[in-house]
Amino acid sequence: MRVKQSTLRSLGGNTLITLFLVLASLAAMAQDSADTASEAALWDILNQSDDPGAIRAYLDLYPDGQFAAAARRKLEGFGPDDSAQHALAQPDAMKAPEHACDRLAADPYDPNRVTDGVFSIAIRPAEAIAACKAAVADYPDEMRFNYQLGRAYVVAERMVDALAAHRVAVEQNYAPALLEYAYLINTECYPLNDGISPITVRLFQAAADTGYVPALEAYGRHLKSGEDDDANKLGRAIAYLEDAADEGYHYAIRHLARHYRDADPPDPAKANRYYDEAVTAFEAAIAAGDDDAALSLTTMYHAGEGVEKDPTKAAALAEQVIARVTGPAIAGNSWATGTLTYIYEYGVGVEKDAFETLFWKRAAAEIGGMWDMYVYAEAVANDDAEAAKWQARMQELELQQAEAGLPGAMIERADRLRAGDGVATDAAAADMWEARAVAKCDDPQAWGLSD
Predict the structure, then answer these.
(1) Crossing angle, helix 15-31 and helix 36-46, to 10 degrees?
(2) In the prediction, which pLDDT does 51 show?
């Protein structure tokens, strides 16, 4: 038994009740059985509370307890749910009206969306960017439009613009933007942090503490990824992942399945239960149009992860993904081109296809991502002229992005200058670029955040 992280957050400043509930939860887990005397004592306290979060916490601990029916009746009397996730959403009266930007780039997981949303892999960048720039101009105080503009810039590989758009929403503590900003910063600072940027961790936690479901999964996954043996940290990680799983978030459910599969000792019963739930959740996400979820389930059937290996199901799902993401890929969506490259290069649900792989690598490079240019140049290394053309384009973009303040490009520039790779060796310039990258990745204020 446990009190959900989101429930504890909803208790706000009620420190005594929160502490009581935490201790009760730990005691219940240690005993692995309900103590009716403790339950009665807890209910005597909580029954006097006017805090719906406290009543939810009791039900987290004792869903079938002797006072559960009374707790549910009391909870109904408080009216609508005011949990952290519910509180994320603005009242409809405060939202700007539906705009083309919403139809082209709204996030399906954003509590403030006004349409069903579009998964990143399906965004058509040029259309979405134009619409969302207009929306931001018309409604500069509506943070969802800045966030949606940032999403469109990301899949178009316009990272300087993406960071700028998300930063506006981050300054207003817009939870989905906090998470996306965290990922973007980590991509830039990853080479300097041997894994994950401390600023990224801070943003993960800030987004998770609002109850935003994808952030619960991201922060839980981060807490679990450490190599230390901190049992408390692992317990917190599982709690965050379970909260996301309770909301049906497929990636969290799969991560929990993998955790129990790989635990020492393994727990096959829990792993199998979570894998069964993951398949159901992925199927629901696919029905909602999530092609990333379709690709994840394809890989599970392809590899036999948590399910019987099933080439027929993998092939059907792969063909569905290919059919649905080809249009966005042609329209310049780098997530879509990357997905198609992966499917054909590794034969996920289809036969490996060198021609299709090279075609989509070239399409990805044309979109303008520095890494995609590098990958394509490597793929055509036997064609000296073609490889040299893309190496030159990559170096030009690298310098542009370094001068625009992207640490990842600064590090690439430093490495190039040290090695004399396509440029004259210049140790002093290399040191300068590396120092600038380190300074930015270590300074929250450089990203518009307080110390």
Answers:
(1) 160
(2) 66
Where do the structural domains in the chain lie, given as residue ranges? Answer: 5-82, 387-447
Which residues, including other chains, have CB under 8 Å from residue 443's CB and lie 6 or more apart?
none
Helices (H), 97-174: 100-105, 125-138, 143-155, 159-170
- The confidence score (pLDDT) of residue 227 equals 54
Would you say 163 and 174 are in contact if contact means Cβ atoms under 8 Å apart? no
Average pLDDT over all residues of the chain: 87
Q: Is the separation of the CB atoms in 21 and 57 below 8 Å? A: yes
User: Taking a C-beta distance cutoff of 8 angstroms, is the pair 146, 166 a contact?
Assistant: yes
* Contact indicator for 154, 183 with CB cutoff of 8 Å: no
- pTM of the predicted structure, to 2 decimals: 0.81
Q: Is 103 exposed, middle or buried (0-12, 13-18, 19+ CB in 10 A)?
A: middle
Alpha-carbon gap, residue 141 to 164, rounded angstroms:
15
Q: How confident is the model at residue 75 (pLDDT cuts 50, 70, 90)?
A: low
pLDDT digits (tens, 9 = 90+) for 151-203: 999 999 999 999 999 999 999 999 999 999 999 999 999 888 777 888 999 99
Per-residue pLDDT band at 23 (split at 50, 70, 90): very low
Query: Distance between CA 318 and CA 37 in Å, rounded?
Result: 55
Instruction: With CA atoms as reference, report the closest residue to 324 among 293, 355, 278, 369.
Output: 293
Q: How far apart are CA 367 and CA 336, in angstroms?
A: 11
